[in-house]
Amino acid sequence: MNLQYIADKSGHTTAVQIQIPIEDWDILKKKYKELEDEENAMFSAPDWQIELGKKELRNIASGNTELMEWSEARKQYKK
């Protein structure tokens, strides 16, 4: 595990950054369930966003949404 102390302009320590090997992180998550819960919360989308995505996928599957290549879309919105 590597520790890096972060200081402000005055030299006062304001934070600690920790690098933990993934194997050690997995062990910690098993031991402390709240770590895994916190990690999952950080990488999950809110319910409204998931539902919006599902609706858009249904629209695409049924042909109700027109798709275009990214390069073409970028040209249209660059103006």
Element layout with pairings:
Layout (H helix, E strand, L loop, with lengths): L1 E6 L5 E7 L2 H10 L1 H10 L4 H15 L8 H9 L1
Antiparallel strand pairs: 1-2
Helix pairs in contact: 1-2
Structure explained in plain terms:
This protein has helices spanning 22-31, 33-42, 47-61, 70-78; strands at 2-7, 13-19. It is an alpha+beta fold and 79 residues long. Strands 1-2 form a two-stranded antiparallel sheet. Strand 1 (2-7) and strand 2 form a beta hairpin. The model has no long low-confidence stretch (mean pLDDT 90).
Our estimate of the beta-strand percent is 15-25%
In angstroms, what separates the terminal alpha carbons? 49 Å
Specify the biggest β-sheet. 2 strands, antiparallel
The number of E-state strands comes to: 2
Query: What is the alpha-carbon Rg in Å?
Result: 22 Å
Major β-sheet strand ordering: 1-2
Query: What are the segments in which pLDDT stays under 50 over at least 5 consecutive residues?
Result: none
Order of helices and strands: EEHHHH
Morphology: elongated
Structure annotation, total helices: 4
Describe, in short, the structure shown.
The protein has 79 residues and is of the alpha+beta class.
Question: Could you name the key traits of this structure?
Answer:
79 residues; alpha+beta; two-stranded antiparallel sheet; 16% strand
